[in-house]
Amino acid sequence: LGILLLLLVIFFGISASGSKRWINFFIMNLQPSELMKIAIIVCFARYFHREQMTNINSFKNIIVSIAILILPILLVISQPDLGTSILIAMSGIIVMWLAGFNIKYFVYSGLTLVISLPFVISILKPYQKLRVLSFFNPDRDPLGAGYQIIQSKIAVGSGGLTGKGYLKGTQS
User: Is the distance from CB of 43 to CB of 102 less than 8 angstroms?
Assistant: First the structure.
């Protein structure tokens, strides 16, 4: 259902601010990529529940898992929505880790990601590059792209683990 909704966005989606992410159902607008964050976890949980623990690291299961993960990521990136696609990828990877995939697959994938990072960054759009740079150094643009990150740090720093209390926070 999640994949079908993501495909519907391509053909019948609503465009706003240069992206096509929503489907108009007359009573509400739905963003299927948000549903995919949960759907990928449920899909993997069901898939791995049916597999024997000894077969988790079989070649078939690795290929099927990667295919299940890559398809929604590609559909979400095409909207374009880089942040949500990264969250979908991370949630799928965490479930694969918890399912019992061998650690060597994560090490090899991590090394491949680090090596390919300069190439991946080169294909990002300028506003995406700015967001990545602002994430690592929010003080670079404190009133623009880094504003939300700086405000989050202030809120967490002033409230600590327990917070300041209901309606007593300094950041909103």
Answer: no
